[in-house]
Amino acid sequence: MAEDLSYIVSEINNHARYNLQLLEETQLLSGNGSDANIKGLLSRDIQKMVQDTDSDPDRIFKARTKIALATGFRADALVINPADYEAIRLSKDANGQYYGGGYFNGQYGNGTIMQDPPLWGLKTVVTEAIAQGTALVGAFKLGGAVIRKGGLRAESTNSHSDDFTNDLITFRVRERLGLQVKYPKAFVSVALGKKAK
């Protein structure tokens, strides 16, 4: 099939690249550092905020303040799970108006609707790579860096193991990268949800 339909190889490579990028996000956030795993941000000695009685948006804002007080840096991004982002995005005031604007335009009919609008001005990355119930606020530009060696490599062969005799092709997509965290206090893990009273 790979010989007869050239787009199949491209399709497989594209899908494999997407899966690798999701794995990369997961490793950068929560990798445990063992073997070939990256020691992710959530596995480092970063600041933490536990559940409290105030709202999730309030604690996300307070995380910005924690970063500023500990490092002097300004938080520039938020990483949040799609389910948690949805809960915040669909929250309404006492009048039934969405805080972040409705599905046709902004709050109370003002402005335009944005897809995945930022919370508190932070670039908001909505990804399933972070566990539901946890948000990560950080000064990503100053606090750390992803170090890459080379680029993303997609390779295929039919000479691995018994692929040739079974008319199989093995695909491999890989990249080399590391995570440097210069300032652990430039990141805050926020436990979402209200603390039980």
UniProtKB/TrEMBL annotation:
Keyword Translocase attributed: no
Pfam families in the cross-refs: Phage_capsid (PF05065)
Keywords from the UniProt entry: Hydrolase, Protease
Gene Ontology terms: biological process: proteolysis
Chief location category: virion
Domain Phage capsid-like C-terminal, first and last residues per copy: 4-189
InterPro entries from the UniProt entry: Phage_capsid, Phage_capsid-like_C
GO MF, any single term: peptidase activity
Name of protein: Phage prohead protease HK97 family protein
Native organism: Bifidobacterium longum subsp. longum
Compartments (UniProt record): Virion
